[in-house]
Amino acid sequence: MATYAVGDLQGCYDPFRRLLDKIQFDPANDRLWLTGDLVNRGPRSRKTLRYVRSLGPAVTTVLGNHDLHLLALAHDIGVNTNRFDSMWKILAADDCDEMIDWLRTQPLAHFDADLNTLLVHAGLPPQWSCKKALKRAAEVEAVLRGADFVDFLQAMYGNKPDRWSGKLAGAERLRFIVNCLTRVRMMTPDGKLDFSHSGPPDAARKGLVPWFNAPDARWAGTRIVFGHWSALGLVVDDNIVSVDTGCVWGRQLTAVRLDGRPKIRQVECG
What we know:
five-stranded mixed β-sheet; Purple Acid Phosphatase, chain A, domain 2; alpha/beta
């Protein structure tokens, strides 16, 4: 059995199917980890979402910020701009309710002890261990799956608070958790989130570091698989596996085999 991590799909259905063919993915035996952002910007968000759902237990996907946007838009929350044009086919589909209900039951973090690997969409603050990250993710997952999830979606947006404290409560606590797991790229070395930069790490202003370079991180010792950061691109080492390689921008879609020595497979998306 093989386990592959695949970067952000963002509605790029055809490259996704070609990549699965290239790695000879067998849903009866293999496992697929998706870094989230299944939808938006690409040409076939609806078909992508339906296909991922059809794979059943063969696939584990975490929620990305675009997936959360879709949940919000489905409940008339959020800004209706052309940034979300690709979402409307999903919202107009006969099976929209089934897709939305499935999406909101997906996790924000997933851990495999045998692989000692944690899957998230974006990143972690240095104050969280892997165990704490899973507990914080579970807080949001419980709300998303509960009766009051629309209230959560209404309060989800915003950049504050920008620093973790165990004293955070209510909407502010959930918002910080979501921002770490689905939006973060850069932060100050002591863990203050910064959303001003989405380009390459070396182009960020002085005083910021990529989240995975924050010193004294309590998650250290666990390999982290993530997407979200196409300007960072492919990074594969003992500590991190970054797999958003900008398929929706005409670059590549990437699969990294996680069991054994990492193996990289890519398809062109132009």
